[in-house]
Each structure stands twice: as structure tokens, then as C-alpha cells.
Amino acid sequence: xxxxxxxxxxxxxxxxxxxxxxxxxxxxxxxxxxxxxxxxxxxxxxxxxxxxxxxxxxxxxxxxxxxxxxxxxxxxxxxxxx
Length: 82
Fold this sequence. Notes:
By secondary structure, the protein is an all-alpha fold. It has one domain (14-79). Helix content is 70%, strand content 0%. Helix 1 runs antiparallel to helix 2. The model has no long low-confidence stretch (mean pLDDT 76).
């Protein structure tokens, strides 16, 4: 190995942020399809009432959680758990 290719002690290799962007994008796109897959499974196995009922339940749950997330209360509560 040539001396030019070695990093000095204490040097930190910088990785551009764009290296992680495609993987993050694909992971989020995969997670975004999960609810529709779950809806389809519920619709086919238990019928439309169960699928739409589950969707309504998730909407109510989200509406109950949303105020604590937007006020920062939940964020503070999670960060204070050390």
C-alpha cells in the first residue's frame, strides 16, 4: 500500500449523504406500500367491513396521537427516557 492511500491517524472518512439517499427512499417506499397490502389481505380474507373498519380504527388512533406529536410532548417524553 502506498503512503498516499493511507489516511493519517485521527482522520475521519467523509461519506456523502447521497450514498444513503437511495436506500432510505426505497425503504420508505416499501413501508408506504405496507398498509395497502394489509388492507388487501383483510379485504380478501375477512371481507370489506373488516378492511374498512381497520382503516377507520387507524384513522381514529392517528387523530388521537397527532396532538401530542405536534405539540412536542411525545418527542420530549421519548427523549427523556434514558
